[in-house]
Amino acid sequence: MSPTETYLKGVQSAMRGLDRRIREDVLRELKAHLADAVADGGESAVVANLEAPQAIARRYKVLYGYGRSFQSMFVIFAAVLGLLTIPIFSLLEPLASLVSLLALGALVTYLILAAMDAGSSVGLFAGVAACLVRIGTLAGAQIATEIAPVTDARGWALFLGVSFLLVVLGYVPGRAREKWTRRDLSM
């Protein structure tokens, strides 16, 4: 495999998550650019002077964001983590509460990181998905069964407050990053 092909494979791999059409357009443009540069100089020298494939991919991710299917995976994973935060899915009560708290910590961390990586809109959708799954699952469990992990108004207020806070945690870090990050999109 030539140095150019190796470089383009690296860029393609690093751009995983971008919309397929955008990825193909970028690769086609890079390939044409590299062909012109190689015609003027040696292939190895041209490729050696190029920016790292991860840096190129990062710029395109900032410019275009992740594709819809990749964004959907962020939201689905947040919903699954939200489901694990409900303490009704374990047979032993102390273990259920511990698993629930650990899952909630993982969910909060995930929402912040997803918003920072994929943007505020993906973080918002992921937070809403986690919030709705938590509320729907607990309400459904309390209506359909005799399991009642939340027994009073204060418990419901705390549970709903934490659930709605997940939406905020999914949105704010990504929005802050978008506002405070200087975008250097020159290539």
Outline type? elongated
- Main pleated-sheet profile: none
Query: What is the typical, i.e. mean, pLDDT?
Result: 84
Distance between the termini: 25 Å
In short:
The chain is mainly α and 187 residues long. The protein has eight helices and no strands. Helix 5 runs parallel beside helix 7 (120-144) and helix 6 packs parallel to helix 8.
Protein topology:
Blueprint (H helix, E strand, L loop, with lengths): L2 H12 L5 H21 L2 H6 L4 H12 L3 H17 L8 H26 L1 H25 L8 H28 L7
Helix pairs in contact: 1-2, 1-4, 5-6, 5-7, 6-7, 6-8, 7-8
Characterize the structure shown:
79% of the residues lie in helices and 0% in strands. With 187 residues, it is mainly alpha-helical. It folds into two domains: 3-64; 68-180, no CATH class. The longest helix has 28 residues, at 153-180. The model has no long low-confidence stretch (mean pLDDT 84).
Brief descriptors of the model:
79% helix; 187 residues; 0% strand; mainly alpha
